[in-house]
Design a protein that fits this description.
This protein is mainly alpha-helical. The protein has nine helices and two strands; from the N terminus they run H-H-H-H-H-H-E-E-H-H-H. Helix 4 runs antiparallel to helix 5 and helix 8 packs antiparallel against helix 9. The longest helix is centred in the last third of the chain and has 29 residues. It starts with a helix and ends with a helix.
């Protein structure tokens, strides 16, 4: 389905959109930084990492290899430093995974580009969908076991403190779902499957709940900014995929 506004945003208005979205993202993150952090050195560092992350994710949504995967490497390396410095060694696992996928992506995407040098997305067969769902199910099943083992070593990823969302859903499982979906979305994005943005949209909804429950308001703001970009990325990748197939005029 063609939507004229989104066609313009991902087409002739793309640069104006990117600049406007980035400025709004900077303002939102800066507001969150000044209002909800203590302005310590680590807070400043994470703000810088978040700003790099803004450029990274918008570049990925518009299929830019070097800007997307290159800055993705920088942003995830920064996240590793933040988690390590704060003592959350277990939380280094996700950004470490993302870092190495970006390393792979920068070479893989370069081999699959259109005449403009932008990466060409691909559609998923039913077997890829089945494999993705199976991976998520396996991840949800194995994560508690791995997390408990890491906890015994002092490096647990998610702590089960017994808190609940809306008095019904264990906060622990919301964190587990966010972690597993994030890994899945990252992998399918690097492998160029356009449906990855549907997973990122789901991930952002889950992370928003996590961040609001933990009082990480700067992360919640970042999540909402990323969510807008995820919808644009979904449309842009799907449109580019259809163009590559010759199904879209």
């Amino acid at each position: 389905m063609r939507i004229q506004l989104l066609d313009n945003i991902t087409g002739k208005w793309s640069m104006q959109w990117i600049i406007g979205w980035f400025i709004c993202g900077v303002l939102a993150l800066s507001l969150g930084f000044w209002k909800f952090t203590e302005h310590q050195a680590l807070d400043w560092f994470y703000l810088g990492v978040s700003l790099v992350g803004l450029i990274c994710v918008v570049s990925l949504s518009f299929r830019k290899n070097v800007m997307g995967n290159g800055l993705g490497m920088a942003a995830t390396a920064g996240e590793v430093v933040v988690q390590a410095t704060s003592g959350a060694v277990g939380l280094m696992l996700a950004p470490l995974f993302n870092f190495f996928t970006h390393v792979y992506g920068i070479f893989y995407w370069s081999k699959n580009t259109d005449p403009d040098g932008d990466m060409v997305p691909k559609s998923a067969s039913k077997w890829i969908w089945i494999l993705t769902i199976a991976f998520i199910a396996l991840g949800l099943a194995l994560f508690p076991i791995v997390n408990d083992w890491l906890a015994q070593k002092g490096y647990n990823v998610v702590e089960d403190d017994g808190s609940q969302f809306l008095g019904m859903i264990d906060f622990y499982w919301i964190n587990v779902l966010a972690f597993v979906l994030s890994i899945t979305a990252q992998a399918t994005m690097i492998l160029r499957y356009s449906f990855n943005w549907w997973i990122w949209i789901a991930v952002n909804f889950v992370w928003l709940i996590v961040n609001l429950m933990t009082g990480n308001y700067i992360f919640a703001i970042q999540t909402m900014v990323y969510q807008i970009n995820a919808f644009i990325g979904l449309y842009e990748w799907h449109r580019s995929e259809q163009l590559a197939k010759g199904k879209l005029a």
